[in-house]
Amino acid sequence: MAVQIVADLYGCKDILDDMTAITDAAHKAIDYVGAQIVEECVHKFEPIGITYFSVISTSHFSIHTWPEYGYAAIDIFSCSDTVAEGISQMLKELFGAERIVLRTIERDIGTTNNTSE
Each residue of 78-106: pLDDT tens digit? Predict the structure, then answer.
């Protein structure tokens, strides 16, 4: 089984347009979920906004920011079912978010006998 976490962070602080701060936050969150970075890419848009993406040992991790709205979208896909535990509070603290909406999607990777109809 695998899990995908989709997090919407609202009311975030100044971190949203700081490439170094975004990368540091990503590293802390990736470490928290017990993964290692295989490869990463970060891009700063003009005039504002950042996209961070990394392939991690358990799948992938991404951050997309809209500083003008104080908003960040974060996706974590992992083959470890334990990543959802506690990550909400961790992300809220890292981004200084006033509010976070976290959705967890259980992904079936074919370990059960599924058929499509």
Answer: 776 666 666 777 888 999 999 999 898 88
* pTM (predicted TM-score): 0.85
User: Which ranges of the chain have pLDDT less than 50?
Assistant: none
* Distance of alpha carbon 16 from the chain centroid: 13
Instruction: Please check whether the domain covering 2-6+14-107 is classified as CATH 3.40.50.300.
Output: no
Where are the domains positioned within the chain? Answer: 2-6+14-107
Whole-angstrom distance, CA of residue 54 vs CA of residue 67: 21
Catalytic residue numbers, as ranges: 59, 64, 79
